[in-house]
Specification:
Blueprint (H helix, E strand, L loop, with lengths): L7 E5 L5 E4 L3 E5 L17 E9 L4 E7 L3 E8 L2 E5 L4 E4 L3 E6 L4 E6 L16 E8 L9 E6 L1 H4 L5 E5 L10 E2 L5 E8 L5 E3 L5 E13 L3 E4 L3 E5 L5 E15 L7
Parallel strand pairs: 13-14
Antiparallel strand pairs: 1-19, 2-3, 3-4, 4-11, 5-10, 6-9, 6-11, 7-8, 7-10, 9-12, 13-15, 15-20, 16-20, 17-18, 17-19, 17-20
Length: 258
């Protein structure tokens, strides 16, 4: 049995993230990714990748492989087209939960070109803005898969909505399922003026302010792009100073400690 983590809170400011910038992509990496490697910043809990990407119209990630990873994509603005080697093809937009299980292996592409799938959609010049997150599945060698679900109405409540989970406790209120029984992703769209939520209690939490500004109990003010990584400190109250959208990973294990 693994040793419980020592209570700890780390605040990571959005401006301190590593960046990849090319003509069509502006990407900010919360953890080591690609050419940006830091041995002291490889993961938190089961979360290995947390990239915030902006992709210009007509551009995107060409077909590439993944395996043995649960990949959740959350769009903040615009639309992103997903196509994969299992035959799935769909447009992801704000309020649509999406998960791809890489399993034994899958090929996929992600592009900002929704008008090419639907002739009724006019070509546009709007970038797509999204967060892509990778977590470790319970075991390797699982069957690859794909799932998406519209949850915009649920988000209107302003509370924490369980977007993706494998935790048994959220089975009846989870939008999409991930093949990890030790973690869950929650999202809250909070109005300003002091609207508040309480964070779940878990050995590992990753709280990311996708937009807006909040005040987190015991931490202070967090602005767009800021993140908090905590161990054994759940239950804090988060208050919206102005309208905000936050992404919260609740994790009950860490990499290498199953």
């Amino acid at each position: 049995m693994s040793t419980p983590p020592t209570p700890h809170v780390d605040v990571h400011r959005g401006g301190d993230r590593a960046k990849t910038q090319v003509s069509w992509l502006d990407s900010k990496h919360s953890f080591s990714f690609g050419d940006h490697y830091d041995p002291d910043n490889t993961h938190h809990g089961l979360l290995l990748v947390h990239n915030e990407d902006i992709v210009t119209a007509g551009q995107g990630f060409e077909t590439h492989p993944h395996r043995d990873m649960e990949i959740v994509t959350w769009v903040l603005g615009g639309s992103l087209v997903h196509q994969d080697s299992l035959g799935h093809s769909g447009v992801i937009y704000p309020g649509l939960a999406q998960r791809m299980s890489a399993g034994t292996g899958i090929l996929h592409s992600e592009k900002n070109d929704s008008w090419r799938l639907d002739s009724r959609v006019r070509e546009h010049d709007r970038p797509v803005h999204f967060v892509q997150m990778w977590v470790v599945p319970d075991e390797s060698g699982l069957s690859p898969g794909y799932q998406q679900l519209e949850i915009d109405d649920e988000l209107a409540s302003g509370g924490l909505v369980t977007v993706a989970s494998g935790l048994p406790r959220y089975r009846d209120r989870t939008a999409i399922t991930i093949k990890s029984s030790r973690c869950a992703l929650h999202v809250a769209r909070m109005a300003g003026g002091g609207q508040a939520i309480d964070l779940p209690d878990a050995p590992y939490l990753h709280v990311f302010v996708a937009r807006g500004e909040v005040d987190m109990e015991g931490v202070g003010v967090l602005a767009t792009g800021d993140a908090v990584r905590s161990t054994r400190t759940g239950g804090q109250r988060v208050v919206a100073r102005r309208s905000a959208e936050i992404l919260v990973w609740e994790m009950h294990a860490r990499l290498g400690a199953f």
